[in-house]
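Suppose you are handed a protein chain with no further information: no name, no annotation, nothing but its sequence. What can you learn? This example shows the usual starting point.
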Amino acid sequence: MAKYDAADCAVKAYGFVWGERHYLFKLAVFPLFIKLVCLVTVISMGYQFDFIRQSLLMLPSYFADGWVMSHLVRLIYLDQRWPFRPSGNQERDLANLRDRAGGIMAGTVFFALIEFIKTGFTGIMYIVAPPPGIGPAPVADVATQAPIHPAMGLLALALVAFTIWSVRYLWLYIPAAAGFSGRDYLKRVGGLMGSIRLLGVWMMTAIPLLFGFVIVTGLLLSPFRDQAGNIDPFMDFIHNILRAAIDMIIMMVITTGIAFAIKSMYAKA
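A reasonable first move is to predict its three-dimensional structure. Written in structure tokens, the prediction is:
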């Protein structure tokens, strides 16, 4: 397992995304629109916790996001930008275009498949251990409630352990988009500790943005909430736009951070 500095990868990721913000904005405009349409459809149909239907409705967004992330990976590893800029040498341009198209397609498909599986796995976790307020209403008489079977607790722990171990698979779209072996990538990541280190990069890239988004939207929307906690439909639409945008930014920063971590694995091999 090659070692790398998770904090350094996170700092590089933020710097890279900020430095390429104009290019990434141009790259993400239309996929962001697709994401917003899918997200609003899921919310309007009440499928926030119906993960099978949600994953099907969000599938176009997964492919659009995968296209963006694949282009981002090609930029990081190969300094390739969209759209393709021909050099004038037809034979070489065709070979480069073929290679680029193969990488973009592979990365996009892997990304969409991973997101689809993640949504389904989230649904399983909600069934096994639903958060407060999700699932059947509590019974008034505590004595009549059925005790939680020990097997369910063990299953929940096993799912958590499996989730941590399988973290390495969440970013298989990065080697796929870059055009190198996913098997070699998994070998370089190593065992459980390799997944934990990647999880550290994920936390350092995602949590600050997510935490900031929750605070800012909470402050912006609080004047528009009624006593029941509901907000004005127009402000709810604005919230969904911000949610889609921040989700795209977070994915870009995470992809960049993990890409730099993988790059370090190969550099130190």
